[in-house]
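Example record used in the benchmark description.
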Amino acid sequence: MAVVCGVCALFFGAWVWFTPFDDRLLSAQNITSTRIVDRYGRGLREVLGSSQGRARQVELEQISDHLINATVHAEDRRFWAHSGVDPLAIGRASWQNMRNLEVISGASTLTQQVVKLLRSGNASRNLLNKFSEAVLAIRLEKSASKQEILAQYLNRAPYGNQLFGVSAASWMYFDKPPAQLSLAEAALLAGIPRAPSLYNPYEDLAGAKKVQERILNLMRERGVISAIQYETAVAEKLVILRPDRRVLAPHFSEYVLTELRNRGAEDDLNAHPKLIRTTLDLDLQKTVQDIVRAELSLLEKKNVHQAAVVILDTQTSEVLAWVGSQDYWAEEHGGANDGVLALRQPGSALKPFVFGAFFEQGYRAAETLADFPTEFPTEKGVYIPKNYDRAYHGPVSARAALASSLNIPAVMVAQTVGVKKVLDTLRDFGMDTFDQDDAHYGLGVALGNGEVRLRDLTAAYATLGRLGTRKELRIFLDDALPAPTKPTFRTSVKDAQIFSPETAYILMDILSDDAARAQGFGRYSALYFPYRVAAKTGTSDGFRDNWTFAVTPEYTIGVWAGNFDASPMQRSSGITGAAPIMRQVTQALYPDAANAGDVPWFPRPDAVETHRVCTLSGHKPGPHCPTTRLELFSAEAAPEEACAIHKSLAIDTRNGLLASPECPAEFVRDEVFTSIPPDWVDWARRRGERLPPTRTSGLCH
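Model output (structure tokens):
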């Protein structure tokens, strides 16, 4: 019988010893969570992996010696000596448990704990499972080195709050890599895996500190640390960072997760966690966030409590910064709302696209538009728009009308182009929230009576900055991700040419023209820079939304300011609310720019020509035009007709009336008059323009 038992024991030992450990269980892939990082690899957010927790694989050399020592002395002081199980610990635990008639002490080694973690960590604590863990621990010790086993434990152990491994815990609790942990911090972390929910630093830091001090005392008693090190570590004030501060650029990272779901990549990430590289620049993000908070502190007196900013690389349409609110974590004023994605009325910010559609139909920036009180008949009645300043500016060029954001000429342009064409243009530029029919918006679409997202409108301005070429908004640098299941824009063709380069260039030129915007904003407003920047503001009806956009060949900036509850601001327009934010952001992007040549400008298309025109008529100057100016034209729309407003007429000097051919020459003199349409007369008289007589002299026979 003894021989049989001996043979069985021999075979059992051989089975335990020679059966190899399944190395596939040691794969780091099983314990690595997905990390969302900025364009330079700096962390923005970690996403729960297949273990439904945050984890990050690190090598043992990347872990502080303090943490290694604290973990060993907290969990398994004879770790470096045993072969997977510790007979002395088993004996001690058995004696203590029998003496107290309950389980008050365990004997699991670190190796056994690694086995338990590899087997999902939720097996019941019965004798069969304990025996199985012991067998696998012996096999693991034979298969892997002590350093590899310890690295497995430190990368898999639970540290509370869905954190697995010391790296995830170190970053979450202390915002530092595990290599930089102090002795006090290391001892605190070493105690958490014993009971992660009980020693949760967020819920009971005092309880976690008591365990930390016991571990430090053990290390002191065993000569691992000195008395001075012990006293210093116990006295160290631990700063535990709240979990909300571990998510950077929260609005953007939420959008990234949404986009991953739209791409069908979420399930793949859960099964195969990875590093998701985004286009965001974290340094720029922080700078913009600071600017938003500083500027909003100055606007509180005008009941402006929120703002959002998005910055794109103009040429690539990559998102460089995405600030959705003043503070995501602040419940007051709805900080978790994302102003970049919120649907708001854009006001005059749509006008460049309305005028662009006008130019695309062959009209010119020199076109003269009448800014007078005008009634526009519509299907719903008479529409009577008014300018923001409640004033009328007479005949103005399309350039001045757009740059100064005059409402009546914009509605006139929309009427000329047609509401359907305006809406088609907006949708082609990616503003698919204009999803009602023409009658729903009417001519008011020119003044922004629909709703749009800051994201989409900024992308549309970037399209102008690419001289009319539309690109899909880009938030990922990782081209291996699946394509979106549906296109972001209505047109699925990539790099579609929406406006001609000539139209887009002329629009950019107008929006950078400080002289042209003087009627609406005065000279040297918040939109003015010593270098060229194309800028446009918008203010929705009732002062509920402020907008400002700025475009250079390198950057496109979109800013919204207002309140998420739609409460009106106190007389805060785009130029006073959103524009100062845009200005600060632009100066942050170009900190050393002080002169015109310090910031690049758009390359001029070959088909854009400069011609001199009569200031009032916008046509080729005639011999009697009092003033002229230079204007840009596409080659196809270059001016050909001469000015017909400033005319030289034969006058009977005896009564100042028109002289007929029969008038004696001695009573005839040629004089210059301003010949205008009838609805300009009142304006001309106020201006002191010399209008031509309407009757022929009766003295001429």
